[in-house]
């Protein structure tokens, strides 16, 4: 339990009062509408007999309720913090600027507070995020044929060594390791939840990960070794296809993905990944559910490891796995992204899409 919640009558009183002290700590599920809300929701208050209360959004979803479109109970909590929202807006306006703690202070924010908030919400500091944003420009320039030195200048790095170090930390390999004739090619894809790295060969997608995933450098090193170093920056047809399908997914038009996948894993892990793909958008499962569905009811921990080994995010939907108690368990791309992905997919529950 994250909090010791009071009884339901006390929570109902908080709902009627729209008490902000319970925001994010408890959610109300309304039987007559099938919707769950924050206790601060501006909608008309439901009757007491139609309300039940849950501690987490995941528990509400597991109970069959969908997120309210007025109070957005699954919305990114980070944007509710003014200093986070202001810095994200500033970064968007100046993506190649070399941000420092002095800039944060000049905007009127305490660097240590900002550091903790960004680590809590995004798993990285604001300065790390700013550096990653600059790297995106260098990466794009290299994909368009620019020399490493030119990509370094495009990304706003003062020296080649700083660019190589930052690029190597993010990608797991130095910029000079990428080849023009790579059998695998890496490309940056922008999404509403942040940039993703897609790697494909001429036939299938091998990797799709959010750029700030901590496991990404290790995954890239393994792919580079498997390809005997034949990895480059650029695109094959599967990358163009997944970019189109991601755009349709985030726009609410279609949750289905048909891009061919290269599932480089053991037969058991592939079986788990296939079971993940069989979960309809808008539904969730627990690790125990997945273990039973593949006929291995005692293999819950092995299923969890296979789920964590997935390196094709969203398409192989490991975000649809929640805890047995309904809580939103960890996610390599960040818990806030998992919440948002589940929220997006609530609109796909009916199966009515073009």
Automatic annotation (TrEMBL):
Domain of life where this protein originates: Bacteria
Stored SUPFAM superfamilies: Ada DNA repair protein, N-terminal domain (N-Ada 10), Homeodomain-like, Methylated DNA-protein cysteine methyltransferase domain, Methylated DNA-protein cysteine methyltransferase, C-terminal domain
Keyword Metal-binding carried by entry: yes
Catalytic residues, chain numbering: 37, 318
CDD domains recorded: ATase
Cofactor binding, note field: Binds 1 zinc ion per subunit.
GO terms for biological process, alphabetical: DNA repair; methylation
Pfam family, one: DNA_binding_1
Substrates-to-products reaction catalysed: a 6-O-methyl-2'-deoxyguanosine in DNA + L-cysteinyl-[protein] = S-methyl-L-cysteinyl-[protein] + a 2'-deoxyguanosine in DNA; a 4-O-methyl-thymidine in DNA + L-cysteinyl-[protein] = a thymidine in DNA + S-methyl-L-cysteinyl-[protein]
GO MF annotations in UniProt: DNA-binding transcription factor activity; methylated-DNA-[protein]-cysteine S-methyltransferase activity; sequence-specific DNA binding; zinc ion binding
Ranges for domain HTH araC/xylS-type: 105-181
Entry similarity comment: Belongs to the MGMT family.
Protein's name according to its UniProt entry: methylated-DNA--[protein]-cysteine S-methyltransferase
Species this protein is from: Rubricella aquisinus
């Amino acid at each position: 339990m994250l909090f010791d919640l009071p009884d339901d009558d006390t929570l109902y009183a908080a709902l009627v009062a729209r008490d902000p002290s319970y925001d994010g700590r408890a959610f109300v599920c309304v039987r007559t509408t099938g919707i769950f809300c924050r206790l601060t929701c501006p909608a008309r208050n439901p009757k007491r007999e139609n309300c039940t209360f849950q501690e987490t959004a995941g528990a509400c979803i597991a109970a069959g309720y969908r997120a309210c479109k007025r109070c957005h109970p699954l919305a990114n909590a980070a944007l509710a913090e003014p200093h986070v929202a202001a810095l994200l807006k500033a970064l968007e306006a100046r993506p190649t600027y070399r941000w420092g703690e002095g800039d944060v202070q000049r905007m009127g924010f305490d660097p240590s507070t900002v550091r903790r908030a960004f680590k809590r919400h995004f798993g990285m500091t604001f300065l790390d995020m700013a550096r990653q944003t600059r790297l995106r420009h260098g990466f794009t320039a290299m994909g368009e044929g620019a020399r490493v030195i030119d990509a370094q200048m495009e990304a706003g790095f003062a020296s080649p060594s700083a660019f190589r170090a930052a690029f190597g930390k993010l990608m797991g390999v130095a910029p000079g390791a990428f080849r023009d004739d790579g059998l695998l090619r890496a490309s940056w894809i922008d999404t509403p939840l942040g940039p993703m790295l897609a790697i494909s060969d001429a036939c299938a997608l091998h990797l799709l990960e959010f750029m700030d995933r901590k496991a990404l450098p290790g995954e890239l090193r393994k792919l580079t070794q498997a390809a005997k170093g034949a990895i480059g920056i650029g695109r094959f047809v599967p990358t163009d296809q997944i970019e189109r399908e991601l755009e349709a997914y985030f726009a609410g038009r279609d949750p289905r993905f048909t891009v061919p996948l290269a599932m480089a894993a053991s037969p058991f892990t592939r079986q788990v990944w296939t079971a993940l793909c069989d979960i309809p958008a808008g539904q969730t499962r627990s690790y125990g559910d997945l273990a039973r569905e593949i006929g291995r009811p005692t293999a819950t921990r092995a299923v969890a490891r296979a789920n964590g080994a997935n390196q094709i995010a969203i398409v192989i939907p490991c975000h649809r796995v929640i805890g047995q108690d309904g809580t939103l368990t960890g996610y390599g791309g960040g818990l806030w992204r998992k919440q948002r992905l589940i929220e997006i997919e609530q609109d796909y529950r009916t199966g009515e899409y073009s």
